[in-house]
Amino acid sequence: MTTPTLSLPSASTPVSPVTELPDDFTALGRIDVHAMPRVLARLVRLAWRYPWRCAAAVLCAVGATLFNLLTPKLLGDAVDQAHRLVGNGSSASSDAAGTALWWIAGFIVAACAARGTLTGLQGYLGENIAQRVGYDLRLAFYEKLQRLDFSFHDRRHSGDLIARGMLDLEGVRGFLESGLLRTLSLALLVVAGTWRLMHVDLLLGALALSFVPFVVWRAGRMGVLLRLSWERLQQLMSELTRGMEENLQGARVVRAFASRAFELAKFDRVSEAALRLSNRRITLRMGSVSTMNFSFYLAMGLVLWFGGRRIAAGQLTVGQLTECLTFMTLLQQPVRQIGMIVNASARAASSGSRFFEVLDTTPAIHDRPGAKPLVLTQGVLRFENVSFTYPRAPGHAGTARAAVLHDIGFELRPGRTLGIVGAPGSGKSTLAQLIARFYDVSAGRITIDGQDVRELTLDSLREAVSLVQQETFLFDTSVHHNAAYAEPAADAGRVVAATTVAQLHDHVAQLPEGYGTRVGERGVALSGGQRQRLSIARGLTADPAIIVLDDATSAVDAATEQHLRTTLHAAVRHKSTVVIAHRLSSLMHADEILVLDQGRIAERGTHDTLLAADGHYAALWKLQNRGERTPAPAPQEGALA
Ligand SMILES: Nc1ncnc2c1ncn2[C@@H]1O[C@H](COP(=O)(O)OP(=O)(O)O)[C@@H](O)[C@H]1O
Ligand SMILES: [Mg+2]
Question: Which of 408, 428, 430 to mutate to test the pocket of ligand 1 (most atoms within 8 A of CB)?
Answer without folding.
Answer: 430
